[in-house]
Design brief:
elongated; transferase; hydrolase; transmembrane helix; transmembrane
């Protein structure tokens, strides 16, 4: 039969009364004297795998890194409990038996006082350091009861391991493991673990690195004691006794200093204090890739020092997750002379030509261009803005793929004029370009040549969008950063067109192409150089990674050797070969929204009647321009080809048909100025007085000089002159110049005319022999 309930309750009466009294005391203490919070921990930034990348001193100047429960391995748990408090899991914070034994030893001992502090009592003392008196000891015991009510045993053990002193300003087992062994607690061997359990008893006399001989003796003594007690297997203890003691003070982890500072400062601004998890902030960086990127950048910049180049920055992004896996803000964070603490990832610089691929992708989506579309590459005056190519030369006409592959400036400005600066900058704003958003009202056609501000972070984000089928999402720097919904900046088809062109560039580290090595990664890449050679850029991507490189000087001074191709690109390929080596041969495939068509090889347009030579070209069905090519015009000419006829004056016999090139005025002027052979349409039959249908106002002469609405300051003492130049259509033989409606003189279309105007508003007019006219107005001052 079961025992009656009353006798059982009588037997448990006193234990229940003691337990109730203990809980009442603890709860009363909590109301009168709330538990003190743990002291502030060291801000720590961790890699994606949880390892410590960078650590800072706590606000009270301690190395106090918080250990998580996962850091407390069974070996560490056993060693601490066996040495400090073997009844830890059984007592309520106070061990009465140990208290009686300590009191007896202190009363009858040889003068050496001993305590009976449990792990919980030690935690209470470390939370509130006080002078060792009987009254404080009693308060410490009450605090221990209070801690046991509030925390689990594992949490109390965790607090103990976070606060235990290791000498100097080192506190906590995680700090000690990293600073003395260079690895986290859960990586320590049995010998190393036992070493760290005994140092807190005498942090000064057993300081690792200073008293290793004495520490070794104490470690071995405790290893034997723990082996005898059966805490660890005898074989493990024997192996641990043979392990040398190599503990020494090491510097705190210092990887990724720029990102670590960025994350910690953001946390401080958000919460007013470092309110990240006790373990720290977990970045997305991959430790091995971060270390490799820092090493390559540091060694590469050292080689550039004789060229007057002192800094570089590198950003590596995983395209699939958009997480940043390496973040190198400068070549050396500690370089004071080179301003190494400046974060080159976020520094706003001139992007040079790095925005051109995105412009061409936007233009393809608007139907303006395809890879084989021919663009003008001739000196052009865009309302006062006269861009030049990097090599100061022009090519006449080039395909888009050549313009992008050779980073030609003039064709890019022509395309931006077609797209519209506002349309283009709006797309950049959608891609997170903050400086462009602020500068938007002041930006013009020079934007595509670097006339705006951008950071390496923004540019890499833009190229990551190209690698992700044209979809943009912000880069992620921390593990808990939410994955934002992507924004489609350009179509998958136009992103592929640009990628295909950029991947055909000849790599600087291979003689012909990537096919010469089966294991080197295939890359689409683009370079950029800012005005004055102050910034060199090289950004590349494949299916796996997007990597951006900036090289220059944080002070802004230029260097003759500073170009994206020669200086930034070698580091880009070193990084790809190290990080993406043997990554597989996966490459982008043409999307469904892309197709082929035949186009005229001369213009890249849909072939017209007179386009015998045709080539295949990608295009976007329903989007790309379908206007037929008219690069040649059929003209009726006399047998000697000295005059041409319109249909109104075409004779019954005695004429023939000839094809003549239909150049734009700018291209025609370029060919004439450079002596390039080209067929010129004969003048129209002078006997014909009918108005011809080809007198299109859009074919009127374009005045190249002077610049419309410009102000010219001329030296009055040396009779400085003003130059008049124009570009006219192919069939123009003579133009007529006027100043303030007064005839100046007639001239050939390519001939420069000079005048000596007075001060004031000046109207310049140019008419061709077809009666088409253009006017501009300028302001002249003579000093």
């Amino acid at each position: 039969m079961p025992r009656p309930l009353a006798p059982v309750l009588r037997r448990l009466r006193w234990p229940l009364l003691v337990l109730s009294g203990t809980l009442a005391v603890a709860l009363g203490l909590n109301w009168l004297f709330p538990l003190p919070p743990p002291p502030p921990y060291s801000p720590v930034v961790m890699a994606a795998d949880g390892s410590v990348l960078h650590a800072y001193l706590s606000p009270d100047q301690k190395w106090r890194m918080a250990a998580e429960l996962r850091d407390i391995t069974p070996t560490l748990r056993k060693a601490i409990v066996a040495k400090e408090d073997q009844w830890f899991y059984y007592h309520p914070g106070i061990n009465p038996v140990a208290l009686v034994q300590a009191a007896w030893r202190n009363a009858l001992g040889d003068g050496h006082r001993t305590g009976a502090s449990t792990i919980t009592m030690q935690v209470a003392r470390m939370l509130e350091p006080k002078e060792r008196t009987l009254g404080n000891k009693l308060f410490e015991m009450l605090r221990a009861l209070q801690l046991e009510v509030h925390y689990s045993k594992d949490e109390i053990l965790q607090l103990y391991l976070n606060l235990v002193p290791y000498g100097s300003n080192v506190e906590g087992v995680k700090s000690a493991a990293l600073l003395y062994y260079g690895q986290p607690p859960h990586y320590l061997s049995l010998a190393q673990t036992v070493t760290l359990t005994i140092v807190p008893n005498n942090p000064t006399g057993l300081a690792p690195g200073r008293h290793n001989a004495r520490l070794l003796q104490a470690r071995n003594r405790w290893l034997r004691r723990l082996g005898t007690a059966g805490v660890f297997p005898a074989k493990d203890v024997a192996n641990a006794l043979q392990e040398p003691l190599l503990a020494q003070r090491r510097p705190a982890p210092r990887l990724a200093p720029h990102l670590s500072r960025r994350l910690v400062q953001a946390e401080l601004q958000k919460a007013g204090t470092f309110a990240g998890s006790k373990a720290g902030l977990q970045a997305t960086l991959v430790r091995a890739k971060q270390a490799k990127a820092e090493e390559l950048t540091r060694h590469y910049v050292r080689r550039l020092a004789p060229l007057g180049i002192t800094q570089a920055a590198v950003l590596v992004v995983n395209n699939r997750t958009r997480t940043v896996e390496a973040y190198v803000g400068s070549a050396d964070f500690g370089d004071v002379l080179g301003q190494g603490q400046v974060d080159g990832i976020r520094a706003v610089r001139s992007p040079g030509s790095t925005l051109k691929p995105f412009l061409y992708a936007v233009a393809a989506d608007l139907g303006h261009v395809t890879p084989k579309r021919v663009l003008p590459d001739v000196p052009t005056n865009f309302s006062g803005f006269r861009p030049e190519n990097f090599d100061k030369r022009c090519n006449g006409e080039v395909t888009l793929e050549r313009a992008l592959g050779h980073s030609l400036n003039i064709p890019a400005v022509h395309v931006l004029q077609q797209v519209g600066v506002g349309t283009f900058t709006q797309q950049l704003r959608r891609a997170g370009f903050r400086t462009v958003a602020r500068q938007a009202p002041q930006l013009g056609l020079s934007t595509i040549l670097g006339g705006c501000g951008a950071s390496l972070e923004e540019l890499v984000g833009l190229y990551t969008a190209l690698a992700n089928k044209g979809a943009y999402a912000p880069l992620r720097f921390t593990a808990d950063a939410p994955a934002a919904r992507p924004t489609q900046l350009v179509s998958e088809a136009s992103a592929y067109l640009v990628t295909d062109i950029l991947s055909q560039l000849v790599r600087p580290d291979l003689p012909v192409g990537y096919e010469n090595s089966l294991r080197l990664p295939r890359i689409a890449w683009k370079t950029g150089t800012s005005y004055g050679r102050r910034d060199a850029w090289s950004i590349g991507y494949n299916r796996h990674y997007t990597i951006g490189v900036w090289v220059g000087n944080f002070a802004g001074q230029g260097a003759p050797a500073l170009t994206g191709t020669d200086v930034a690109t070698p580091l880009l390929f070193d990084l790809f070969n190290a990080i993406s080596y043997n990554d597989g041969g996966e490459w982008f495939v043409p999307p469904a929204g892309l197709d082929f068509r035949l186009v005229c090889s001369v213009t890249g347009q849909v072939p017209g009647t007179h386009c015998p030579n045709q080539v295949m070209d990608y295009y976007l069905p329903g989007v790309s321009d379908t206007r037929r090519c008219e690069h040649q015009q059929e003209v009726f000419v006399s047998p000697t080809a000295d005059v041409s006829y319109c249909r109104a004056c075409l004779p019954a016999v005695g004429y023939r048909r000839e094809l003549y090139p239909n150049f734009t005025p700018e291209v025609l002027a370029f060919k004439a100025a450079n002596g390039l052979p080209h067929a010129i349409r004969p003048p129209h039959n002078p006997a014909c007085t009918l108005v011809r249908s080809d007198d299109d106002p859009q074919q009127a002469p374009r005045i190249l000089s002077p610049t419309p609405n410009a102000e010219y300051v001329l030296d009055g003492r040396d009779s400085q002159q003003l130059q008049l130049r124009c570009a006219a259509a192919n069939d123009v033989r003579q133009v007529y110049w006027y100043a303030n409606d007064q005839f100046v003189r007639a001239a050939a279309p390519t001939e420069a005319v000079f005048i000596r105007p007075g001060s004031g508003v000046l109207k310049i007019s140019c008419a061709d022999d077809h009666g088409r006219n253009t006017d501009v107005q300028v302001l002249v001052e003579r000093l």
